[in-house]
Design brief:
Blueprint lengths: L23 H4 L1 H20 L11 H12 L3 H14 L2 H11 L5 H5 L10 H38 L4 E6 L2 E7 H21 L3 E2 L9 H6 L5 H10 L9 E2 L10 H30 L2 E3 L18 H23 L10 H6 L2 H21 E3 L1 H9 L6 H10 L5 H9 L6 H10 L4 H9 L9 H7 L1
Parallel strand pairs: 3-4
Antiparallel strand pairs: 1-2, 5-6
Helix pairs in contact: 2-3, 2-4, 2-5, 2-7, 4-5, 7-8, 7-14, 8-11, 8-20, 11-12, 12-14, 16-17
GO molecular function, one term: N6-(1,2-dicarboxyethyl)AMP AMP-lyase (fumarate-forming) activity
Family: Belongs to the lyase 1 family. Adenylosuccinate lyase subfamily.
Pfam families: ASL_C, Lyase_1
Amino acid sequence: MTLSTISALSPLDGRYAGRLAPLRPLMSEQGYMHKRVQVEICWFIALSDAGFAEFKPLTPGARTYLLGLVKNFSEADAGAIKEIEKTTNHDVKAVEYWIKSKFEARPELRAASEFVHFACTSEDINNTSHALQLKGGRDLVILPAIDGLVDKLRSMARAYAEVPMLSRTHGQTASPTTVGKEIANVVVRLAAAREKIAAVKLLGKMNGAVGNYNAHLSAWPDFDWEAFSRKVVESPEPLGLGLTFQPYSIQIEPHDYMAELFDAVARANTILIDWSRDVWGYVSLGYFKQRLREGEIGSSTMPHKVNPIDFENAEGNLGLANAILRHLSEKLPVSRWQRDLTDSTVLRNMGVALGYAALAYHSLGIGLGKLELNEEALVADLDRSWEVLAEPIQTVMRRYGVQGAYEKLKEVTRGKTVRAEDLHALVRSLEIPAAEKDRLLAMTPASYIGKAAELAKRA
């Protein structure tokens, strides 16, 4: 069967395939194989430099050739490994055999071929490959996408810093804010969540079948294998892996760092779910219009509709991402005794979780780019909501010791349509300094925004 986007089981490889092109080389099975080849080659070259009499340092030409296998790894190479796996029924062994097949025409490498995968268990290769995949996915796709959203939201926060907007607590009219300040709230939250994603250390272990260097020490008992392994894991690419060394493990790396990373991404996603729903509401209120796209249809039967589909798409895909991320976070740190295989099949869905997140970030970016502020709607809403000035009036009354301030304003405003003249009549009757009366009489819902504009510009 020839697969196409229309026959794909997952919409990530079907309907939305084009949007996820940057993530696919990193988090796909091909990407997984690529990283396995990278780890095996890195380990092999490091062994040649370890000073063993049985494995002399590789020549510069051999090193260049080996690093070229990593740099130039292709879909055809991944296909060749899959062909070998049909026989081995073992994916890591298939990678080992593929690498050895590349040594056939080079006597120097062929003579040292038994040092490919030397003393390694499959998980030494797999756990470091997963970490490299996550490194690429996080640093090249997820963080840049979040950074793009933060930058866009920050520019909106500053542009709309002084545009008054009616707040709604419990869905009811409340003290005014500004559009920019509400966006600034999201900027600050999302930027903090982004830093937590970036701060997670990506760990790798290369310590053998149960984490004790058993096989390594059986070959060279006096060699410092732990220091050697640390050097391979932590040295920068391409001769190292550029990860953080994990000194304690069972057969598998414990995956606690993965849980931390996935939780951090899920937290950022939750912030964006909150924002997607708020924007949806603001579009519904008319605070934002959406730029039209030529030929786009909002409804099959209602020609007038311009739906907030980008924010709805984002909300749905962020929910899917978080459902998978949370399962990964809860499941991966749990393993029976020294090893079970439940993590293996689950780990193959890391790309699915990040794919739904990346898809959502893309939709949000498109949606934000289509928004246009409708200041007329914002002004009209504020002009209908003079009751929000009950708060400042009663606060000034309290300052000057007017008894029953809250109760007097409640009597005038609660559950009623409040007019400016109603509030002004109350203010004029108050026994407070004339300057304070004038200040309150000059106040409007649009001017009662506190430090909102300053806070928005500062975000």
